[in-house]
Automatic annotation (TrEMBL):
Keywords: ATP-binding, DNA replication, DNA-binding, Helicase, Hydrolase, Isomerase, Nucleotide-binding, Primosome. It catalyses: ATP + H2O = ADP + phosphate + H(+). InterPro entries: AAA+_ATPase, DNA_heli_DnaB-like_N_sf, DNA_helicase_DnaB, DNA_helicase_DnaB-like_C, DNA_helicase_DnaB-like_N, DNA_helicase_N/primase_C, P-loop_NTPase. SUPFAM superfamilies: N-terminal domain of DnaB helicase, P-loop containing nucleoside triphosphate hydrolases. It comes from Parasutterella excrementihominis YIT 11859. NCBIfam families: DnaB. Residues 184-453 form the SF4 helicase domain. This is Replicative DNA helicase. The main replicative DNA helicase, it participates in initiation and elongation during chromosome replication. Travels ahead of the DNA replisome, separating dsDNA into templates for DNA synthesis. A processive ATP-dependent 5'-3' DNA helicase it has DNA-dependent ATPase activity. Its EC number is 5.6.2.3. One of its GO terms (molecular function) is ATP binding. It holds the Pfam family DnaB.
Length: 454
């Protein structure tokens, strides 16, 4: 008679040998608990008895108490888990069978690997159930959800980023950060803009922030965003992702070559340069080639495609230091059949999605946006937050909003026609201020007005 079908089903991935060896090494060498790499959770153990034993070891070690055979046995008896774990007899067998504490990390790696595979199987089963349930979720929603979950698993983020944390634990981190700032008060913590006065106020563009840079065409918002990107990648060595919806990849890098080499864009476009200029171009090429800058100029980009590309990039390079999206109004609507009247709502969905993505990736997102024509019809031509084109919830979602404008363009100011004002019109964590800069358009570079006058 053939065996029951259930007996022929494969067991989920697990390694009894690695679990036994790991627990045995920990019980025989309690001081080695904090040397485990990668860190393990009780749920990483497949065998229920092993899971309970590791939970007891974890509990004792977290309290600074030794976790040997006797203390673990006593704790298991105290909490009523002695029978489920086999008691003192099973604990002794574990210590007798382990090979060496020197292999602790290898045992942990195997246990973690098997746990991750079981988790993958579980997530795939959940996805299959959702697909078959036909509850109304679109295929794009399902893909977005599974990509997010798999990225967290792949980066070792096993805990929900939004899970509760005690005030004591949070405040420990807050105080540590405050002390670090006090020790180095002039250090910029986030991505630098190169405008010293602006960086002093913002302390740089920091992880999780959505920073909106808005202007009318031709003012220099793309040049400013690329300046931040270049400094982040070259000086701070952080990976930068640039979505260029208006320019080609070559155009983006030409602008960066110009600003890094200080060779005029006109000379670069015409390729008519002196030997000195060529030398500076080659030097800039070497610098930029080594910088972790990644450019995507795909057309018809949607929020979901941006999420997918960034998650794939994060899986390749690790933590992303900065994301630039140029620009908001060129992003495609997820629903191609949506009416024009719904465009402002769609823009709001996009801005909210990018803010959540900034938090998920723990990276600042520079989101470029157009200002509407009303600013040109206003007597003083000074932009307001309400001038954000198809504003929706952009102002609400943004942590900072920088409005760039020129007075000289409308004949309202004498002096250097290259003066561009940067109005920090929203700053969730600080004061508002207007900064005067010089936009050297010939090399796509912003400088402080004071520095230029000196």
């Amino acid at each position: 008679m053939s065996a029951p079908i259930i007996d022929s089903l494969p067991l989920p991935p697990h390694s009894p040998e690695a679990e036994h060896a790991l627990l045995g090494a920990l019980l025989a060498n309690p001081e080695s608990f904090h040397l485990i790499e990668p860190p393990l959770e009780p749920s990483d153990f497949y065998n229920y008895a092993n899971r309970l034993i590791y939970q007891a070891i974890f509990s004792l070690a977290s309290q600074g108490k030794p976790a040997d055979v006797l203390t673990v046995s006593d704790l298991l008896r105290e909490i009523g888990n002695e029978k489920e774990t086999g008691g003192l007899e099973y604990l002794n067998r574990l210590t007798e069978s382990y090979a060496s504490a020197a292999n602790l990390s290898e045992y942990a790696r195997i246990v973690k690997d098997k746990a991750l595979k079981r988790n993958l199987i579980s997530k795939l089963a959940q996805l299959e159930a959702e697909v078959n349930s036909d509850r109304g979720a679109s295929s794009e929603d399902l893909l977005d959800r599974v990509q997010s979950e798999f990225l967290k698993m792949g980066l070792g983020k096993n805990k929900d980023a939004s899970s509760f944390e005690s005030s004591g634990s949070i405040l420990d981190g807050v105080i540590d950060e405050m002390r670090s700032i006090a020790d180095s008060p002039t250090e910029i913590r986030g991505c630098e803009s190169g405008i010293e006065q602006l960086d002093d106020v913002t302390r740089g563009f920091r992880p999780g922030q959505l920073v909106v840079i808005a202007a009318r065409p031709g003012i220099g918002k793309t040049a400013f965003a690329l300046q931040v990107a270049r400094r982040t990648a070259v000086r701070q060595k952080k990976p930068v992702a640039i979505f260029a919806l208006e320019m080609t990849k070559n155009e983006v890098l030409k602008r960066m070559l110009s600003s890094e080499s200080e060779v005029e864009m006109e000379s670069i476009d015409g390729a008519q340069m002196t030997d000195t200029q060529w030398s500076r171009i080659y030097q800039a090429q070497e610098v930029l080639s080594k910088a972790p800058i990644f450019v995507d100029s795909s057309s018809e980009l949607t929020l979901m495609r941006i999420k997918t590309k960034l998650r794939q990039l994060a899986a390749q390079v690790g933590n992303i230091g900065l994301v630039v999206v140029d620009y908001l109004q060129l992003l495609e609507q997820e629903d191609e059949n949506a009416s024009a009247d719904l465009r402002s709502i769609q823009i709001g969905v996009l801005s909210r999605g990018l803010k959540l993505l900034a938090k998920e990736l723990n990276a600042p997102v520079l989101l470029l946006s157009q200002l509407n024509r009303q600013v040109e019809n206003r007597p003083n031509h000074t932009p307001l937050l309400s001038d954000l084109r198809e504003s929706g919830s952009i102002e609400q979602d943004a942590d900072m909003v920088l409005l760039l404008y020129s007075k000289a363009k409308f004949g309202q100011e004498q002096g250097d026609s290259r003066t561009i004002y940067m109005d920090l019109a929203k700053h969730r964590n600080g004061r508002l201020e207007v900064f005067s800069t010089i936009f050297k358009g010939e090399i796509q570079c912003f400088e402080e007005l004071n520095a230029w006058n000196q």
